[in-house]
What we know:
CATH class of the domain at 8-36 and 98-201: Alpha Beta
Order of helices and strands: EHEEEHEEHEHEHHEHH
CATH architecture of the domain at 8-36 and 98-201: 3-Layer(aba) Sandwich
Low-confidence stretches: none
Structural class: alpha/beta
Mean pLDDT: 93
Largest sheet: 5 strands, parallel
Strand order of the largest sheet: 2-7-1-8-9
CATH superfamily of the domain at 8-36 and 98-201: P-loop containing nucleotide triphosphate hydrolases
Bound molecules: guanosine-5'-monophosphate
Shape: globular
CATH topology of the domain at 8-36 and 98-201: Rossmann fold
Amino acid sequence: MAVIKGIPIVLSGPSGVGKGTVIQSLLESRPELLLSISMTTRSPRPNERDGVDYYFVNRARFDEAIERNELVEWAAVYHHYYGTPKQELQSNFERGRDVILDIDVQGAASVRNLYEDSVLVFLLPPSLEELKRRLYSRQKGTEDDLEHRIAEYKREIRFLGIYDYVIVNERVDQAVSDLYSIIAANRLLRKRGESMWRANHIPEP
Ligand code: 5GP
């Protein structure tokens, strides 16, 4: 039986906007969706687990992954390296699973080049003030780090034009439902389902 091939659903947005919360909540309610687990050279935070949040590796292993062409894309973000492993992603697409990628603007641009039918979504904070408030209340990192994250946001926002959709994260439940609507509508695109409905639903002439 032919299936609709899966595609990458990229979700980008500044640190502190709540991407992680939105994604976790969506995955809990929609188990058919999957999350791509990136490889990174940064150290795990206290609540993070290897193989669940990221594959935590050293720089030598990361370089090896680049050399062996194991990554779909990779980028340096906040002084660390992050990359999307290829093999698992491809096999999930073949099995018809849409996969969410929590990656930055550089990664989004690379994914769009590689997968024409990818869907790019940017999550915006309600305001810059609110983003600062959320970052400060998380108290992750130093003052410098926070300043750096705000500067990074101002840089990233200039690439908004490459994204297909924008969601303002005022309320998590609304953002989750908006993201799911985008994914669901995309699965119903005529051209996306063509091989499936031609094989399974349309009689031979
Ligand atoms: P964090 O260190 O806070 O988990 O992530 C920092 C930034 O790196 C986030 O904007 C996140 O979306 C991005 N990121 C995480 N994994 C990847 C990846 O595999 N590729 C790219 N390009 N960016 C990533």
